[in-house]
Amino acid sequence: MTSPDKTSIKVAILDLYAGHPNQGMRCFQEILDRYRKDNQLDLSYQVFDVRGNNQFPGIDFDIYIGSGGPGSPLESEGSEWENNYFTLIDQIQKHNDSDHPQKKHVLFVCHSFQLMCRHYGLGTVNQRHSPSFGILPVHQTETGYQDPVFAGLPDPFYAVDSRSWQVIQPNYERLAELGATLLAIEKERPNVEYERCLMAIRFSEYFIGTQFHPEADPEGMRLRLLEPDKKEETIAEHGEHKYYEMLERLNDPDKLLLTQNTMIPNFLNQAILTFQEI
């Protein structure tokens, strides 16, 4: 990508981890640092502690990234930070609906994705029968094949899935009403009765969300998988063979590393292309 005419690009990272230890914030920042260097851009970012300190950016940023985070995406309904969060999102949406030529792109990951699905009424948000954690296949829909954010990814592609909560039972009428499209879905499991989780939705031309973690890298995932509680949790859900298979996948350049090097850079490319078109 060539440098856009816009002199600087500002990214706001909305931290929803509420102070809990995580690998996600490091990964987001490293991806942005690498993208800035690779494309020789004047790109800066700022982190806002949304849940912990009720910190929010204005709408003077160009790109927004909402992180994952712990806990229930239902219990925060009506809280001060969540009201402020949706006020910001609605302001960005209003800006994008206006005649302003420079649109603002937003990526919603995991907890942020679940909040948006609840906010828009796009499906049922509920707690899983047991936590899901690991490097798992993500299957694209027909619409997903055509989405530029997934360009360069195989079907299925592999990503980190880390959730106790999920979105199921898509409301297709509401999706159509908003012009939203389902891009990816959980793998089919014919041996169990549970419904397939929604894994990615394009909410609008400028808003996209994923249940999985496109920012995750092998280094951070290895640390998590080796934690005793995560090892036990993963084996309980997927079996010992799958657990060690996940550890092996960390070294496969066509699995987790490919997703990390592809999806968020594609998202940034699409966002920055709008600056070039002005």
From TrEMBL:
Gene3D superfamilies found in the cross-reference section: 3.40.50.880
Q: InterPro entries annotated for this entry?
A: Class_I_gatase-like (IPR029062), GATASE (IPR017926)
Coiled-coil regions listed = none
All residue ranges annotated as the Glutamine amidotransferase domain in the record: 58-226
Taxonomy, superkingdom: Bacteria
Q: Which PROSITE patterns match?
A: GATASE_TYPE_1
- Kindly give the SUPFAM superfamilies that the UniProt entry links to this protein: Class I glutamine amidotransferase-like
Its protein name is: GMP synthase
Species: Mucilaginibacter arboris
